[in-house]
Design brief:
The protein has 21 helices and ten strands. α9 packs across α10, α9 crosses α11 and α18 packs across α19. It has 520 residues and is mainly alpha-helical. The longest helix has 19 residues. Helix content is 41%, strand content 8%. The strands form five sheets. It has a two-stranded antiparallel ribbon with strand order 1-4. Strands 2-3 form a two-stranded antiparallel sheet.
């Protein structure tokens, strides 16, 4: 037995060597000249019956000498940590991929945020609802996760924010840019406020800008300032032989602070303890899920069926500005993760009558709001409020109005109306231009009082100061209603007041002046 145990290693070695040994008679390599030549049918030999057929075509070997491979970039595979992120902040940190920006402006913004803990708390609490979705989209596109912090700069993560320049939503899209990226805007919905649609559009836009400039800092500057402005600034520096990085360009103060703000927030997220900032715990899991709706439904009813407050419902569905959700225009709603199942169950068991008490109606002719309200047993005040119709305005033909269901309007709103609904208004009274000649001692104030208009408006129409006086016979421009125009004509006929001949009364007031006149 002792001798046998010594023989086992030798036997194993011989067996492995046998496995690794080359075949005793390797096939001969064909000549290079005929290696790639096609085999003629006459050269194929068929095997006799009962014998396995040999290979019909001889092996092909490459001909010619070795050639060097062309150089090509090789992307390294991402290495994933074995431990999952502790929370959403940890997950964002792991995806940082933009170069850090240094400088005094970054330190200035860090100090600004550090001294406003209440502000940080409010905007991060708002971001709790949306951060997971934004990070998911960024990772899916292989984009830097710093961009998930951009809504903090743009809107403090408020999807209902509207700037003085009419940019809207948490990504702050201007109307024209929103339409470019297929964000629908009509009287029933504004996708610039929609969480899913606006995030998709913002990341599309940012990726396009990065492809254009090859630099994330320049891409962000273009997102804030406009791609054309950044391109012109780069061209100007190139012409002067200057560098063209973000910090080298001459740009408005808002854009100059834009990336430093994002960098400051990134630094806070990267090391909150070092900057003495406390971030709220936000779990690394989805906050909401999508739910399909197949019938028009009131916003209040949807919130009730989901068992969430109206404020929380609107926070997840901010694009629905009206009290009605249209299945044809908004086929999906967002609900807190645990409430989605509740909504479905409560909807199936709902026996409270119709789901929608509102609907859309297209005006066949021009009419007054009071006349439209009477058609649907509504008060004029309610119709004006729900459709945002200001005083002294007419509803133009073809306009879409939100009205109470009734009078046969019990079907869901069509897809065409849901996608193209617009409210078009016209002033009840059209102001027309009148030209008169000033008399002796006429001033802006005296003529304004005489014709029942404001001093400011009359001064604006004539491009003079409010305290100015007119020379006798000087032409004065007025914009008057029909009644005021008739009074002016009477005054001229009787010889009282301003003298002179009136110009044609058919010219309408310019759009820019109509607004200031309407306030009087």
């Amino acid at each position: 037995m002792k001798h046998l145990s010594l023989l086992w290693p030798l036997v194993a070695t011989l067996w492995l060597a046998g496995c690794a040994a080359p075949p005793s008679a390797p096939p001969a390599k064909p000549p290079a000249s005929s290696a790639s030549a096609p085999v003629k049918p006459s050269e194929i030999t068929l095997a006799p019956p009962g014998v396995s057929a040999p290979t019909l075509r001889p092996p092909v070997y490459p001909s010619g000498g070795l050639r060097p491979l062309s150089a090509a970039p090789v992307d390294a595979w991402a290495v994933h940590a074995l431990v999952p992120p502790a929370d959403i902040w940890d997950r964002i940190r792991r995806g940082f991929a933009m170069p850090d920006l240094q400088g005094e402006l970054v330190r200035d913004r860090e100090q600004w945020y550090k001294t406003r803990p209440d502000y940080i708390q409010r905007m991060t609490e708002r971001g709790r609802k949306y951060l997971f979705h934004v990070v998911e989209e960024l990772e899916r596109r292989n984009m830097p996760t710093e961009l998930a912090l951009l809504p903090f700069v743009e809107s403090a993560f408020n999807p209902e924010a509207v700037s003085s320049a009419k940019a809207a939503g948490m990504w702050q899209f201007m109307p024209a840019t929103g339409r470019t990226f297929e964000l629908k805007q009509n009287m029933f919905r504004d996708d610039r406020r929609d969480v899913l649609a606006s995030t998709r559009a913002a990341l599309d836009y940012l990726q396009k800008l990065h492809d254009m400039f090859g630099d994330w800092h320049l891409a962000l500057a273009a997102y804030n300032w406009g791609e054309g402005s950044v391109m012109r600034a780069i061209a100007k520096n190139q012409k002067l032989g200057l560098s063209t990085g973000y910090t080298d360009l001459k740009m408005p103060m808002e854009t100059r602070f834009y990336v430093p703000k994002l960098q400051a927030i990134k630094n806070i997220v990267a090391a909150p303890e070092a900057l003495n900032v406390q971030l709220p715990v936000i779990g690394n899991h989805p906050f909401f899920q999508t739910v399909d709706i197949r019938r028009d439904i009131d916003v209040a009813v949807a919130a009730k069926l989901a068992e969430v407050s109206l404020a929380d419902f609107r926070a997840l569905n901010p694009s629905a500005s009206k009290p009605l959700l249209l299945a044809a225009g908004t086929p999906q709603i967002l609900l807190p993760w645990d409430n989605a199942t509740l909504f479905q169950r409560n909807l199936e068991a709902y026996t409270g009558g119709r789901l929608a008490s509102w609907t859309a109606w297209v005006a066949p002719t021009a009419l007054k709001p009071a006349d439209a309200a009477r058609r649907f047993d509504m008060s004029e005040a309610e119709l004006r409020a729900v459709n945002a119709i200001p005083p002294r305005m007419l509803i133009r033909a073809g306009s879409t109005l939100l009205v109470r269901r009734g009078n046969g309007l019990n079907t869901d709103v069509s897809e065409h109306v849901a996608d193209h609904a617009q409210l078009s208004l016209a002033p009840e009274v059209v102001l027309r231009q009148q030209t008169v000649k000033a008399g002796k001692k006429d001033t802006v104030a005296s003529l304004a009082k005489k014709y029942g208009v404001s001093v400011a408006a009359l001064a604006d129409w004539n491009h003079i100061s409010e305290g100015a006086s007119f020379k006798p016979g000087q032409k004065v421009t007025l914009y008057l209603t029909g009644r005021a125009s008739s009074s002016a004509k009477t005054a001229r006929t009787s010889g009282k007041g301003a003298a002179g001949k009136s110009a044609s009364p058919t010219k309408k007031i310019p759009a820019g002046k109509k607004k200031s006149a309407a306030r009087q």
